[in-house]
């Protein structure tokens, strides 16, 4: 098991960003190195339907974030999104659309809106484009 470290200020920004999208799902990207987050990229959920239970990161924003991270020698560390009415655990859709095997997947549950719950996972798939995979809980530290 590896560890994801998110600075407290970035954690606060993530929660604020996701609250702005509530009751729809919000999403974003985290950059850094070796599981240590140093950059936060809040993104737009461009899912055309069912934003309350699905997300799709704006591809332009994702490309810009990845290009910036690459230009400064960092990498995409994690992809995050909210679950507005369910636990902070990957859904079958989350597993199916987990195309970044090296990234953490961070989920924040707003099932209790005043008490968000955050968890990190790795989604291990034999084929990144496949339908199924193993959900592996990861240690998460907010500093």
From TrEMBL:
<dbReference type="Pfam" id="PF14464">
    <property type="entry name" value="Prok-JAB"/>
</dbReference>
<keyword id="KW-0479">Metal-binding</keyword>
<dbReference type="InterPro" id="IPR051929">
    <property type="entry name" value="VirAsm_ModProt"/>
</dbReference>
<keyword id="KW-0378">Hydrolase</keyword>
<feature type="domain" description="MPN">
    <location>
        <begin position="4"/>
        <end position="127"/>
    </location>
</feature>
<dbReference type="InterPro" id="IPR028090">
    <property type="entry name" value="JAB_dom_prok"/>
</dbReference>
<protein>
    <submittedName>
        <fullName>M67 family metallopeptidase</fullName>
    </submittedName>
</protein>
<dbReference type="InterPro" id="IPR037518">
    <property type="entry name" value="MPN"/>
</dbReference>
<dbReference type="GO" id="GO:0006508">
    <property type="term" value="P:proteolysis"/>
</dbReference>
<dbReference type="GO" id="GO:0008235">
    <property type="term" value="F:metalloexopeptidase activity"/>
</dbReference>
<keyword id="KW-0645">Protease</keyword>
<keyword id="KW-0862">Zinc</keyword>
<dbReference type="InterPro" id="IPR000555">
    <property type="entry name" value="JAMM/MPN+_dom"/>
</dbReference>
<dbReference type="GO" id="GO:0008270">
    <property type="term" value="F:zinc ion binding"/>
</dbReference>
<keyword id="KW-0482">Metalloprotease</keyword>
């Amino acid at each position: 098991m590896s560890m994801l470290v998110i600075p407290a200020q970035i954690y606060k920004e993530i929660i604020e960003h996701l609250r702005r999208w509530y009751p729809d799902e919000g999403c974003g990207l985290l950059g850094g190195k070796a599981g240590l987050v140093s950059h936060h990229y809040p993104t737009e959920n461009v899912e055309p339907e069912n934003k309350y239970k699905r997300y799709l990161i704006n591809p332009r924003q994702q490309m810009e974030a990845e290009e910036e991270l690459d230009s400064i020698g960092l990498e995409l560390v994690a992809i995050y999104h909210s679950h507005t009415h369910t636990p902070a655990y990957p859904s079958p859709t989350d597993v199916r659309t987990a195309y970044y095997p090296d990234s953490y997947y961070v989920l924040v549950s707003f099932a209790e809106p005043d008490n968000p719950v955050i968890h990190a996972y790795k989604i291990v798939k034999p084929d990144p484009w496949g339908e199924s995979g193993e959900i592996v809980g990861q240690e998460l530290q907010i500093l």
